[in-house]
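notes to self, project folder thing:

trying the whole complex as one job this time. last attempt i did each chain seperately and stitching them together was a nightmare. two parts in total, labels are on each line so i dont mix them up again. if this works i'll redo the older ones the same way
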Amino acid sequence: MALPLSYSIRNLWRRRLTTSLTVAGMALVVFVFAAVLMMAAGLQKTLVETGSSNNVVVVRKGSASEVMSSIERKAASVVEMMPEVATGISGQPMMAKEVVVLIALKKQGEEKASSHSNVVVRGMQSESISLRHQVKLVAGRLPRPGSLEVLVGNSIAKRFQGVGLQQTLNWGMRTWTVVGIFDAGNTGFSSEIWGDVDQVMQAFRRPIYSSLIFKLKTPDAFDAIKTAIEKDPRFTLEARRETKYYSDQSEMMAKFLRILGTTLTIIFSIGAIIGAMITMYSAVANRTPEIGTLRALGFRRRNILLAFLTESLLLGFLGGAIGLFFASFMQFMTISTVNFQTFSELAFKFTLTPGIIVESMIFALLMGLIGGALPALRASRLKIVDALRAAT
Amino acid sequence: MLLLKILFRNAFHNKLRSGLTILGIAVAILAFGLLRTVISSFYAGVEAASTSRLVTRNAISIIFALPISYAEKIRQVEGVKIVSWGNWFGGVYIDEKNFFPNFCVEPTTYFALYPEFVLDGLEKKAFLFDRKGAVAGRKLAAKYGWKVGDAITLKGTIYPGNWDFVLRGIYRGRDRTVDETQFFFQWAYLNEAVKKMAPVFADKVGFYMVGLSRPDVAADTALAIDNIFKNSQAETLTETEKAFNLGFIAMSEAIVTAIQMVSFIIILIIMAVVANTMAMTTRERTGDYAIMKTLGFGAKDISFLIFGEALVLTLTGCLIGVALTFPAARIFGAELATYFPVFLVSADTVYMDIAAALLIAFLAAIIPTRHAIRIRIADGLRRIG
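result (full assembly):
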């Protein structure tokens, strides 16, 4: 015979102020816990979605990002002719030979500050867009090949100065006109500016490509072309699947978030567990005569233990639910920061996944359970006579 | 005096609850202190930067280089005392996980310009005479067990291939705020290799460090330097070292803001815990307060009691938390040495800890105090039975 659930609920309701303070503390902890997880998930999602597993990125061996890489034209042509590279409808290889540089741009609302953010400028070819199915033009038009016209990703267009439609930018003693804005969804491309590859090379005096991106003829041809490229004595290049390439780039940032997240959560949860403990201990102390009566009526020790554990689990559940409720609003927020590894601007959203909901809820219940365990144990250990005597 | 005695008795009346509350506060203050230290470590590079040094770099962005010929032109600008230059090398030691900043610099001028890097006279001489020589910071050398004379190989990420160096010296910081995890070698070594490998990229400099004769001419000198190279192939952007370093932090501002927000959330959490404790204590003591009121104690005395009790709890917790922050920061700093070369608890952090504790005590006591003052004597006494 167990004590009904309503007994625990009523007890919580009776002591509203204390309950709400405890729940508020727990909700804040769950909020932070969920927010950090959502941030890491958002970062990962952005960088994973940036790649497609059918595409291969080729960079110079040992370079951590496209910006550091250099590939000579001769080497690029050799790779272009490899049989594993897919061909388009008119028989052309589906490969884009690109050059990637960083330029410093000012963010909006920071007119006075001297601070800049590094934005990726990608010199692209006609295949560049068709290889990235996520990229869609949302305003203006595509630049004419060979011209000084650029496309701007929507994350950049929103957050930086002077990159609206028809506005002009100055780099390398040339004037570039923004003719279109593209949306690449939740991908890193949304934080880039795209111009013509030959013009960008000329302007920045980099007569070499940074990376080659191509589509595989068949998805399983990757191993073959990887060996072919990496064993070729004419150049020192390495090939990675596009998805792998982008997830490698998020490693350092993800590690930083992980260390920060775990440390914070551990420390914070100690605070919340202590809060739950204080509440439950006083719940037990205030209800000692009641517990005596229950025991005298025939309820067993484990019934009492269970009732108090339920009560603290309820506290945890409430905290978890409220914390998650507020955390879900964080999905409307976009973080724009610099990726330590590539040193360039990257915007990503907080992303709530079912996994995070489950993890946060388990975490909240666990806090309630740990906080309530000792007080519940004390309640169940009370002797009937002593407990009843406390009434007078 | 009597009230004070009651106050302390009250604070430690329920030992379990007071103990838990104090523990909670200590943990929160510890977390708050660590987070503030993380934030101040972000700015450590800015704090350490001198106002009498300028940094000149390519106006397009930091990844573009400047010709070496600019050195002479910058030297002729009025107010410039000394010019040094360097490149970010971006080499990796064995594995990508072993990250540390590595630069090549023009050695003689660089050490003249940065007196905070203290290098033994003999070691400096050895470094200057060896084209393949390198100098590492004390912490860096300790981390990998390097000794002077050791051969070190870095794998280039920007400049391909394996690069061999001989460690000729280990520098120390002039004080504790100096970054001791850097690695320097000779710019000429890099340049000669690049000349053979890719002549297009030879004779290029990543950034110039400019020493000024007086700090107050910084703005004018910076402008004068940029004006020389206006409308050239490589325009320059010159700013004080402080602004230059601040620019790097501004890029990851979102993260700093997030940490800042989180550090305030912990205060909120612990506020909820302390408020809870105070609410419970005053509820239990409603009868006591009613009796005190009957005896003629006024609202002032009762609020003194409650606020005092909250203060005793939070300040005790705060003291323990602050005491724990220092050893915790040492462990945390060692763990995150890759991200934060300098991780020191500043005096400001301790002041903020105390301010936070006072704030928590004050806010947590307001509602219970109001409640205790408002309650009518008869109602309060009735609660006993």
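what i see at first glance: The two ends of chain B are 30 Å apart (CA to CA).
need to look closer tmrw
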